[in-house]
């Protein structure tokens, strides 16, 4: 592997749809939206690790509990505009496409290959890593190409 080369990483972003929904994310278009308001160090550190072009699942938490779409990181980690506290950073993401079939949390819990997925194991974490194999499985369940 060439020096400085990095494989694309995959993530999962959780949002309560009554606070910020997939439709609202889509409405932001190519400019995307700041993924602000995260106040968990592990989730923040995950965002600090992201690079432009990384892909993520958009997950509706609390209502629906399902992965509904695919997003792309369109701006790397920078100070969160919703606070003056320098500890908090966030990325910008833009919607790429919806899943043909939403993938529920229950499906993830029952699907072989997803038993160790952060969504199943660390359900409270709002920004999570997704392995390439988990990405492939969820995309197949959702009816989209990985």
UniProtKB/TrEMBL annotation:
Pfam name, any one: EVE
CDD domains with a match to the protein in the record: EVE
UniProt domain EVE: residue ranges: 9-140
Origin: domain of life: Bacteria
Signal peptide: none
Protein name, as recorded: Ubiquinol-cytochrome c reductase
Organism encoding this protein: Gemmobacter lanyuensis
């Amino acid at each position: 592997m060439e020096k400085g080369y990095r494989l694309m990483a995959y993530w999962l972003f959780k949002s309560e749809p009554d606070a910020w929904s997939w439709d609202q994310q889509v409405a932001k278009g190519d400019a995307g939206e700041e993924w602000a308001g995260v106040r968990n160090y592990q989730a923040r550190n995950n965002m600090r690790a992201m690079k432009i072009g990384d892909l993520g699942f958009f997950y509706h938490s609390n209502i629906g509990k399902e992965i509904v779409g695919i997003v792309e990181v369109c701006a790397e980690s920078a100070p969160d505009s919703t606070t003056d506290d320098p500890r908090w950073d966030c990325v910008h993401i833009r919607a790429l496409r919806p899943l043909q079939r939403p993938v529920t949390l229950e499906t993830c819990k029952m699907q072989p290959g997803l038993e160790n997925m952060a969504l199943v194991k660390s359900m409270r974490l709002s920004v999570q890593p997704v392995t390439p194999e988990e990405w492939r499985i969820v995309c197949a369940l959702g009816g989209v190409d990985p």
